[in-house]
Amino acid sequence: MKTSASSTAPVVNPVIDAFIAASAIAFGLYVSAPSRAAMLQATLARSAKRDLRSRLRERWPIWRARLRRATAVALSVAAILPFGSKAADKPVLVVGDQAYNAQSLFEASGALRDAPYTVAWKQFPAGTPVIEAVNAGALDIGLQGDGPVLFLAAQGAPVKVIGIYRDSPDSVVLLAGPHTQIKTVADLKGKTVAITRGGWSQQLVQAALTSAGLPLDSVKYSYLASVDSAAALQAGKVDATATWEPYVTRLREAGARTVVTARGLIAAQSYLSTTQKVIDAKRELLGDFVQRYQRAREWSLADSRHIERYADVWAAKSRVDPKLAHQWFSTSRIRYEPLTDSAIAEAQKSVDDFVKTGTLTKSFDVRGLFDTSFNKFTQAAR
Hints:
It comes from Pandoraea apista. Its main location: periplasm. It is found in: Periplasm. Keywords: Membrane, Signal, Transmembrane, Transmembrane helix, Transport. This is ABC transporter substrate-binding protein. The chain is an alpha/beta fold and about 375 residues long. The protein folds into two domains: about 90-165 and about 270-380, Periplasmic binding protein-like II (D-Maltodextrin-Binding Protein, domain 2, 3-Layer(aba) Sandwich); about 170-260, 3-Layer(aba) Sandwich (D-Maltodextrin-Binding Protein, domain 2). Helix content is about 50%, strand content about 15%. The protein has 14 helices and eleven strands. The chain has helices at about 15-25, 35-50, 50-90, 100-110, 125-135, 145-155, 200-210, 225-235, 245-255, 275-300, 305-320, 320-330, 340-355, 375-380, and strands at about 90-100, 120-125, 140-145, 160-165, 170-175, 190-195, 220-225, 240-245, 255-260, 270-275, 335. The strands form two sheets. It has a six-stranded mixed sheet with strand order 2-1-3-10-4-11, sandwiched between helices. Helix 1 (about 15-25) packs across helix 2 (about 35-50) and helix 4 (about 100-110) crosses helix 10 (about 275-300). The radius of gyration is 33 Å and the shape is globular. The termini are far apart.
């Protein structure tokens, strides 16, 4: 049984449907999908009553004009869309972090809200691989302690420091194991001390020995990564170690005793580091990131509830007890600092001390390492 054309549900040909839509755009009209279906159904109904050849002959001039305009619209859209998509994409800043510290800070404070770029976070277990990745071009900017940066700069690497942040000196501590009788620096004589070569750990132990009037070789050194140093002290394989948070809190909970802190002994500086190549390509992005980092640090210190929020975010990411995180952040109270003459002088002293202890073979002028032009970004944040 045949069905009349007027009652036949149209099979919507996507080509014809697209043509109708493009034609409507060409004429400055909007035609919804249901309306286009109705138009198509009406066209099919009329087609059943009229001779196809005469209809085509009659309508062809109109359709040809519409086709030309629709084609022009389609080509214009095709040309614009790829460009528009790229223009809408934000630039990316690749940031090297250690154990979610900075990432947690930014997430807790919301300091990256409305940033004109996207941050791609890369996590590392320690500072040395961070600055090595910066130097290799794998990161745009990295956050790490001063030692690894100074060591790499001493080798002629084109790294640059564009900002400084500093832990409280009370959060960098020389600890004695609970299995020992060590109470003072003098008690370290002849003992085995775990340190991280070139980092705050080595700086603190050697500064403490010098301050106590002891030669640097009065102790036996066991060179270990910070996580391994903590494990060695807990296992009783070494007598003491110099470390920082969160290891300090963990070791104290396990019975370790404080021998001395970094207060008055070392600078305990950390750097926001990059390369000249990245500065040339992304100066404004780097400056904005440093400015937001400063604001985030100020936010964290403005209220104890902010510290708790920061600690909770970090604890969730690191899957550790929030109490440990709260203790760490409450003690370390990390703050941002501009690149001042005194901060640069402290870096020079660290380099010279490394030379005296034989850790570095020769000194170098650190002033070329610091790009103080980025101070304008942090001054604007105040």
